[in-house]
Amino acid sequence: MTRAAELASSREGLLDHEAARPYRRSLGSDRSSSELDLDELPPPRSRGGWSPSPSRGKKSNKEKEKEKGYPGLPKAKRKGGLLRKTTCLLIMSILLGGLLGLIAMALWVWRKAIPLDGQSPPWYPSPKGGTLAPWEESYKKAAAMVSKMSLPEKVNITTGTGWSQDLCVGNTAPANGVGFPPLCLQDGPLGIRFADHATAWPAGITVGATWNKDLIYKRGRALGLEHRLKGVNVLLGPSMGPLGRMPAGGRNWEGFGPDPVLQGIASAQTIKGIQDEGVMATAKHYVANEQEHFRQANEWLTPHAISSNIDDRALHEVYLWPFADSIRVGVASVMCSYNMVNNSYACGNSKLLNGILKDELGFQGFVQSDWLAQRSGVASALAGLDMTMPGDGLYWMDGDSLFGPHLTRSVLNGSLPVERLDDMATRVVAAWYQLGQDDKARWPNIPPEGDGRPNFSSWTNDKVGKIHHGSDDPTTAVVNQFIDVQGQGKDFHGRLAQQVAAEGTILVKNENNVLPLDPKGWTEQYQPHGTGKYKVGVFGEDAGSNPNGPNDCPDRACNVGTLASGWGSGAVEFPYLVPPIEALESTFDLGSVDITATLTNDLPKNCYSGQDLCLVFINSDAGEGYIQWNGITDRNDLYPQKGGDELVKKVATECLQTVVVVHAVGPVVLERWIDLPNVKAVILANLPGEESGNAIADVLFGRVDATGRLPYTVGKSMSEYGPGGQVMYKPNGLAPQQDFKEGLLIDYRHFDKQSITPRYEFGFGLSYTTFTFSNLALTTLKPKSPFPSPRPEGTILPPTYSTDIPDPSSALFPKIFWKLHKRIYPYIDSTKEIKTGSYPYPTGYNDQQVPSPAGGGEGGNPSLYEEHILVSIDLKNTGPRTGKQVVQVYVSFPEDVIDSSTGSKIEFPVRVLRGFEKVELAAGDTTRVEVRLTRRDLSYWSVGYQNWVIPDGDIVVAVGASSRDLPLSGTW
C-alpha cells in the first residue's frame, strides 16, 4: 500500500489488519543525532519502581553430587578422560549454536514486528499555543518570561527530575533566573496519592453514578483545594480514558462511565472545580487506553505496547468527546497514554497530538507523558509532547532522560527547531499563569524565600527524610508537615464525600418495598415475634474491615475487608474507612434489634437461619497493571469475587428477606442469584471511599432517597457486551493488535443495536418515591443547517522568539556543581558533544497541513457549541416523600443517511445520550426541566468532510428515566 493510499484509508476507517503491522519507530532522543531503536533495549521496570525477578532455585547437595558423578557415562570414563572433555565440548557447542540460532530467530521475528511507519498519518509541525482569547493574557506573560530563559532553563521546565528525585511523583526543576518555580505533579483523581490527612474520595465511577453536576463540581473543588494546600501544582486527574469500552477493564473505575456525554460532563465539572482552586487539572489518558493487559512495552513480556486500532469516526464521536469537553473548560494539561493508537505510540503520535489535540480541539495547555510512556526523544517533541514524566528515559530510575541533556543537544545541533522548544516551555508557563500560580498569597516562593514547596513526601511517612530520596544525596529535612487539608466542622470534606457516595449508590431491586429499613427493625408490615427482638444478620467479608488496616496493601492492591477503592496510581491512603458493619450497628436501635455479624464469605452452617433480615455484602476489585492481586488486573470475569455468589445463595436459601449490597469497580453479573425468591433488594454501591459505611446506611435507612443511576449497563453475561467488550488476555503478536471494529457501539449502544435485554439498562435506578414525565416541548433555538460556521479566522498570534541556536557553552554544567546520582539535568559536559548534520525528520514533516474546519476554539469550532434545541418537560413527584430524579435526554438519528462526501450510508446507534439534569422535588410537586442540545449533540463526524454534519431527516428526541424507559419523544 502506498503512503497516500494508507493515509486515505486511515481516514475512511480501520485498515486491513491482516496486513503487516506497522509501528511508528522512534527517531531517537538524539543522543548523537542517531536513531534510537526501541527493539535493542531491555525491558523497563514497572511503574512502582520495582519489578519481580525470576526465581533462581538453588540446587540441592544431592543434585550437586549427582552432577559431580557425571551420570550416563561408563564408570571407567568418569575420571576426566578425553571422551568426557570431547563430549562436554560437543554438547556445549551444540547448546551454544542452538542458543545463537534462537536469538537470531527472535531478533528476526522482533524486527519483522516493527516496520518503520505507523498507520496514523503524520501531522506537522506542532501548532503553537497562544492563539485563543481565553489564554491571551497568560501567553503574553509567559512570552515575557520565556524570552529571558536560558536554554537549560527551558529544558528544565519541560523535563522531570526523575522518579523519586523530589517530593512528588512528578517534579520539574526551576528556572531560577526568571523566578519560575519547580512544579509538583501528583496523582490523582481520587485524592492526593502518598499523602496524609487528606480525603479518600469516592471513585470516579461512583461520581458518574450520581448524575449530579453540582455535586461533581463540589467534589472537584474540594479535590483542588486539598491539592493546593499540600503544595501540588498539577493534579493528575480526572481520568476519562479508559472510557470503559470493556466492562472488565482494570482502571474503568477511575473514570465516570462508558458513555462519552456522561463522561465528558463529569470530567468538565471536575476540572472546573479543580481549576477554580488554582490547581492545574490533567485530562488523562489520551487516548483509547482501554485495558491494562499489554498497555506498556515489556510490562507483559511483549516488546511493544498494545495498539488500539480505531477508525476516525469512532475516535471523534466516542473516545475524543470527553477530552473535547475538558479542553472546552480550559484544562491546563493533557496526559498522553502508554498504548499505541493505530500502531503509533500515543505520546509520539503527531496526528493525535498536533493534528487533533492542538489544531482541531484548540488545546492551549501542555501535553505531558504518562510515566515512561514517552518512547522517543526528538520524534516525540516534534509530534507534540511538551513535558516528559517522570523524566527518566526508557527504564525506571535510569537517570538517562529522553529529554534533559539530549533535548539540549538536539537544539544545539539543529535537530529540534528552537521554536518547538520555545513553544513547549511557553505552554507550561502559560498554564501556570492561567491558573494564577504566580499569586504569592496562594503559592508562596520556594525556600529559602518562602515555604512554597510541597509539605509532604511521597517516599516516607516520617517527619524528617531525604529531600532527594532517589539520589545519593544524604541531605535530610522536614519533608512531612502533616498538614490536615480535610476541612473542619461544616466544611469537613468527609460530609461531602459521604453525600457523593450516597448519591452514587444505585438501588436496582426492591420487592415489596423492603427498603428503606426502620432503625427499630419492626414496621407495620413486620410485627414482633418471640422475644420481640428484630433479628438482623450481616454477612460477608465486605461488611467489615481489613484487620491490618485499610492501607495494608501498597496502592490498595488487595481485596480484604470492605471494598472502597480500586488499586493503582489512582488510589490514595485512607485517613479512615468506615466499614458497613460499624454504621449499621450505630444506626439500628439495639434495644429492639439484635445484630449478628458474620464477617466472612465462608459461613458456618445455619448461622443465617432464624433471621428476620439478612444483609449480604459482596464485591469485585481490579486495578492498574503494574500490580496483580490473585492474578487480576483487568478483571478475569464479571462475577463477584471471593465466592460472593455462593455466599448470597447460601443466605438466601434460608433467610426470607435478603438484601444484597455489591461494592465493585464496574458492572457485575448477578444472574446466579438475582431471581431467587428471597433476594428482595439489591444495591450497587460502586466504590464509596472513606465514608463507605455511613453512605450505605444513608440509603438503606432512607435518610436520603435512592438517587443513583447506572453509569454503565449490567448485562447477564460477559459475552453480551459483544466482541468489542472483551479484554484481550493473550497477545496476538509482539505488538498486540486490538481492533475497535464495533465503532460507536459500546455498552448500551451495543445492547440496543443487537436487541439484547440487559439485566439493568444504562441510566436505570430505583427511587423511594415515584415520578412522572409529561408535556414534552422541543423549541428550535437555531435553525438546522448541515455544517458548522466556517472556522474562525485567527486574529491572535502566538508568541515569537529568536530562532538563533544558542551558544553551546551556555548549556555547560556550572563550574561548581554537585551532581546527584540519577537526577536529570539539562546541562551538557562539553561543547564537543555538539555535532551538526542532517537530521532524518519524520515522513510528512514538510507537508503543508490544512487547519481542521472543525477547529478554531477550545474544544473545537465554537459553532459546535451553539444551542439548537431547547428540550423541556414537566416532572412531577407522585410518591410519598422528597426525592431526586435524573431527567435523561436521548437522540436517535434518521435512517438511510448518505454522506455526500463519500457516498456511503451512515450507520447510527439506536439512541445516544445527549444531556441530563438531576432534579429534587418534594412529594406532590411539579417543575419544568430544561435541557439544551448543541450542534455537536445533533451531528455525526464525517470522515470525508473531516467535520461535524447534521444529517438530513427527522431527529428523534426522547426523554425519560433511563436508556430504555423513555415515555416522551418528539421529532426535530
TrEMBL record:
Pinpoint the Fibronectin type III-like domain residues: 885-963
What family classification does the UniProt entry report for this protein? Belongs to the glycosyl hydrolase 3 family.
Q: EC number(s) on record?
A: 3.2.1.21
Pathway in which the depicted protein is active: Glycan metabolism; cellulose degradation
Q: Which GO terms describe its molecular function?
A: beta-glucosidase activity
Q: Name one GO cellular component term.
A: plasma membrane
The alphabetical list of record keywords is: Carbohydrate metabolism, Cell membrane, Glycoprotein, Glycosidase, Hydrolase, Membrane, Polysaccharide degradation, Signal-anchor, Transmembrane, Transmembrane helix
The way this protein sits in the membrane is described as: Single-pass type II membrane protein
The UniProt entry, under InterPro entries, shows: Cellulose_deg_GH3, Fn3-like, GH, Glyco_hydro_3_C, Glyco_hydro_3_C_sf, Glyco_hydro_3_N, Glyco_hydro_3_N_sf, Ig-like_fold
Give the Basic and acidic residues compositional bias ranges: 60-69
Major place of residence: membrane
Please report the organism this UniProt entry assigns to the protein: Letharia columbiana
Keyword Transmembrane attributed? yes
SMART domains, per this entry? Fn3_like
What is the official name of this protein in its record? Probable beta-glucosidase E
Query: Where would you find the membrane-spanning parts of this chain?
Result: 87-110
The compartments listed are: Cell membrane
- Carries keyword Transmembrane? yes
Cited function? Beta-glucosidases are one of a number of cellulolytic enzymes involved in the degradation of cellulosic biomass. Catalyzes the last step releasing glucose from the inhibitory cellobiose.
Q: Where is the composition biased (Low complexity)?
A: 46-55
The source's domain of life comes to Eukaryota
Q: Which example biological process does GO assign this protein? A: glucan catabolic process
Give the reaction(s) catalysed: Hydrolysis of terminal, non-reducing beta-D-glucosyl residues with release of beta-D-glucose
Give the residue ranges for region: Disordered.
Answer: 1-77
